[in-house]
């Protein structure tokens, strides 16, 4: 069940600015040189929506301003080495302070940005660790002045939903624009959707008809020795949950799991909505496979600024493993927004953090336009994209067979070129672009996973179940690695691809629309699902 924000290129870094703040920053300075933040406008806006007016001048809007890391391609190079199991640097991750010192913007540069924003009447909020993300808020009129654009109201032609958006790319004084990669929050068109498929009931398995913890662990050969004890897992969420439902699930299976911790970002996600089942699915799947891991639920607003801030809060926390079940088609996002989120993932990878994202529940057509497209953030090169399968287990809860699930997202990115660690399995259909998914796990809704949500048992499926299944494996691996005196798995893709299929259930039948499963890596299930004991042994070397 992938919850969809449906949802959800790195800019060259210029030379550092050392001059004093121009006088123009503190005034309207109509003739001061300005430059645009490239790619920071919704694609195809006038073709897919009708303008209905102007945003009220006094409407308050929050924005999150992303800065480009220092050092140009140096961060990419560092992540490539620290994530490569064949490199002498493998596993030698940076601490938060080391990352800030090496790749973050200087305090002087951040001060220049803050001074400018305040001069335009904006309220400056948090400056996040690493000096690469600054929060601010103000009225629509103040934002229009600060960023040199107009904010209009629009109505989506297809859905009828009303939203606001900037008419043109934001601009800033040239010296500041060279530092800024994205201004998130100037539109609220895209809301991430979760990837949870409709709940179904089957006459077998656990309560509600879905798979039980014993069936999931047995099917994927999870040893009883490792439970996730001492490990932490983060969940990115845009809705909330009720602890009473989690307690009911844990008690039914005698899991004894720690109570999840909630961290609200930018005020949280608001009142409970239809994404509640997503959040409770995510938590309960983690408890099913890694029952003793400590889960922190990061709840943020379902907006561009809320998304960036919530990912950054996860990186700031230092939690090693994150499961993501919310996304949107790549084509629904602005280029600069994708770059801003990608930069947060890259910073996490440098610090030894791994992200596992559901690949979507619309097969090969994530955008729903009749073509082939993929979901973001599963398509990000610094994220492990998790596709969907249909797992069958024996009466003894052992693996029997597995086929590709028809709804599992997969295909080629339209944004990212193929990363070096994926070139060994490069397909002609990929056209030289990032291929999705990397791996997969059980997502079929009949039977799905037995969960307790909103006061009742049911069976839920979707790649939103598959992503936490993989995040749970990462926690189990990290527990085993810690016992062996080795580093966390961190950004897993280079190591997973270096395994060349060892430790995976290779899925060779089924399709997701445009693509069919085949031997080895494919566009439906990636490398396949995990055999926990075998894959952990391979990764430990």
3D structure, described in words:
The protein has 541 residues and is an alpha+beta fold. The protein is 26% helix and 25% strand. Strands 13, 14, 15, 16, 18, 20, 21 and 24 form an eight-stranded mixed beta sheet that branches. Strand 5 (123-127) and strand 6 (133-139) form a beta hairpin. The protein is globular and about 70 Å long. The two termini are 33 Å apart. Mean pLDDT is 92; it is low at 6-31.
Q: Kindly report how far apart the N and C termini lie.
A: 33 Å
DSSP helical segment count: 14
Average pLDDT taken over every residue: 92
What percent of residues adopt helix (DSSP H or I)? 25-40%
Anisotropy-based shape = globular
Question: Structural class per helix/strand content?
Answer: alpha+beta
Radius of gyration: 23 Å
Tell me the fraction of residues in β-strands, as a range. Answer: 15-25%
Number of E-state strands = 28
- Low-pLDDT segments: 6-31
Most strands sheet: 8 strands, mixed
Quick tags:
541 residues; alpha+beta; 14 helices
Please outline the helices and strands.
Blueprint: E1 2-4, E2 34-36, H1 45-48, E3 49-54, E4 60-67, H2 74-82, H3 96-103, H4 107-119, E5 123-127, E6 133-139, H5 140-147, E7 151-156, E8 162-166, E9 171-173, H6 174-177, E10 180-184, E11 193-195, E12 197-200, H7 213-219, E13 232-237, H8 243-252, E14 261-264, H9 276-289, E15 294-299, H10 304-317, E16 321-324, E17 326-329, H11 335-350, E18 354-358, E19 375-376, E20 384-393, E21 399-404, E22 411-417, E23 433-436, E24 439-442, E25 449-453, E26 456-461, H12 463-483, H13 493-498, E27 504-505, E28 529-530, H14 532-540
Parallel strand pairs: 13-15, 13-16, 14-15, 16-18, 18-20, 20-24
Antiparallel strand pairs: 1-11, 2-9, 3-7, 4-6, 4-10, 5-6, 7-8, 11-17, 12-26, 17-19, 20-21, 22-23, 25-26, 27-28
């Amino acid at each position: 069940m992938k919850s969809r924000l449906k949802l959800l290129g790195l800019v060259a870094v210029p030379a550092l600015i050392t001059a004093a703040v121009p006088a123009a920053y503190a005034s309207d300075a109509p003739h001061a040189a300005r430059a645009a933040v490239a790619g920071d406008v919704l694609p195809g806006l006038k073709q897919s929506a009708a303008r209905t007016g102007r945003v009220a001048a006094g409407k308050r809007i929050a924005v999150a301003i992303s800065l480009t890391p220092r050092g140009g391609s140096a961060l990419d190079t560092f992540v490539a080495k620290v994530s490569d199991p064949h490199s002498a640097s493998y596993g030698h991750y940076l601490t938060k302070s080391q990352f800030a010192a090496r790749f973050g913007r200087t305090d002087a540069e951040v001060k220049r940005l803050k001074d400018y924003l305040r001069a335009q009447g904006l309220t400056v909020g948090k400056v996040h660790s690493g000096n690469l993300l600054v929060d601010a808020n103000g009225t629509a009129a103040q934002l229009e002045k600060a960023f040199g654009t107009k904010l209009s109201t629009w109505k989506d032609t297809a859905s009828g939903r009303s939203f606001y958006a900037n008419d043109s790319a934001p601009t800033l004084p040239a010296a500041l624009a060279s530092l800024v990669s994205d201004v998130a929050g100037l539109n609220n068109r895209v809301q991430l959707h979760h990837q949870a498929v409709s709940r179904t009931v089957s006459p077998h398995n656990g309560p509600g008809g879905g798979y039980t913890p014993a069936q999931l662990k047995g099917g994927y050969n999870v040893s009883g020795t490792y439970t996730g004890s001492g490990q932490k897992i983060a969940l990115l969420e845009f809705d909330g949950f009720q602890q009473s439902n989690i307690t009911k699930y844990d008690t039914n299976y005698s899991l004894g799991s720690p109570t999840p911790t909630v961290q609200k970002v930018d005020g949280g996600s608001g009142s409970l909505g239809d994404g509640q089942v997503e959040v409770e699915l995510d938590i309960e799947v983690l408890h099913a496979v890694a029952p003793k891991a400590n889960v922190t639920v990061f709840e943020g607003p379902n907006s561009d600024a809320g998304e960036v801030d919530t990912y950054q809060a996860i990186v700031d926390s230092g939690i090693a493993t994150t499961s993501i079940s919310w996304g949107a088609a790549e084509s629904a996002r602005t280029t600069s927004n994708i770059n801003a989120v990608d930069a947060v993932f890259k910073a996490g990878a440098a610090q030894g953090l791994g992200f596992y994202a559901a690949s979507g529940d619309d097969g090969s057509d994530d955008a729903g336009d009749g073509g082939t497209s993929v979901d973001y953030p599963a398509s990000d090169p610094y994220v492990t994209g998790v596709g969907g399968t249909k797992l069958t287990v024996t009466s003894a809860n052992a693996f029997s067979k597995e086929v590709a699930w028809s709804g599992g997202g997969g295909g080629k990115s339209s944004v990212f070129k193929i990363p070096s660690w994926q070139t060994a399995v490069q397909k002609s259909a990929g056209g030289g672009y990032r291929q999705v998914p990397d791996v997969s796990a059980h997502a079929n809704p009949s039977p799905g996973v037995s969960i307790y949500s909103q006061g009742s048992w049911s069976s839920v499926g979707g790649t939103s179940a598959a992503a936490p299944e993989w995040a749970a494996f990462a926690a189990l691996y990290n527990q085993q690695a810690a016992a062996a005196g080795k580093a966390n798995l961190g950004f897993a893709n280079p190591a997973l691809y270096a395994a060349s299929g060892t430790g995976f259930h290779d899925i060779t039948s089924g399709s997701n629309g445009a693509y069919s499963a085949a031997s080895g890596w494919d566009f439906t299930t990636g490398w396949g699902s995990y055999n926990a004991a075998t894959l952990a042994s391979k990764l430990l070397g």
